[in-house]
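hey m, so remember when u said the tokens were messed up on ur end? i reran from scratch. heres the input so u can diff it against urs
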Amino acid sequence: RATPWPMKDEAPSHAETLANWMSADANTWGHALQLNGALEPAKAAFELALALAPDNQIAALNAAVNTRLAEGAAGPTVYSPDLSPYLERWVETYGPVDHSILAFELGTKLQQMRLFRQAARYFDRAVELHPQELALHLARASHYLEKAALPDQARERLAELRQHFPTESTTAEQETVIRVLESWIDAYQGDLEASIAKLEALVTEFPRSQQPLKAMAEIYWRAGDLERAVATLDRQLATFPGLGSALVMKSALWIKQGRHAD
């Protein structure tokens, strides 16, 4: 393990090092208990971790989350931004942390490492700890669909999102993002007709949004219908002349069609 507590200048004694190792073990055990809903034993483990090493900020964060879970509170436990430069070092020293923001960050790192199934677990935990954050729900459902290639599970996560964010509670922009994602799930599950129907409804409802027609073109392209993909981009360019993303995609489609001169 790394030398604990980076803010200390002096080197720890052998006794301190042993206490820190035992504290990390207690924190790791408490983290595992907490993930499985055993809050009281987890609380005792975090208390032991802090008794062994009062500087164990990871155990302190986990204990704070434990208190909020026991109280039935939603939302992340706040930690000082001044501590963030040390979090990676602390996690290396003291073990895992059960915090929605940090769980999301770890899921993102695992996603970048292409460890998609492992990342999914941390996105799930981030939402479980902070269910009132729409961005977490969307990132999780998108991950299950686009990275983990699990459209059934993505639909389940989207249904959970709707429990917290019904249509009447969302803005036009949020609603567009949610329903575009739903149309992509249809496409991944092979229901092209339902996917396009949802997007056409969005175009009618939100004509100034770029997202529905962009998604429609991408879905047609993915389905191998290049002609309809190009036609959809023409519709988008008629509404948004000179739109760079549409022009680039149309050029790529023309290349696929062998229309190099165009």
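this time it looks ok to me. Residues 1-7 have pLDDT under 50 and may be disordered. if urs says something different then somethings off w ur setup not the seq
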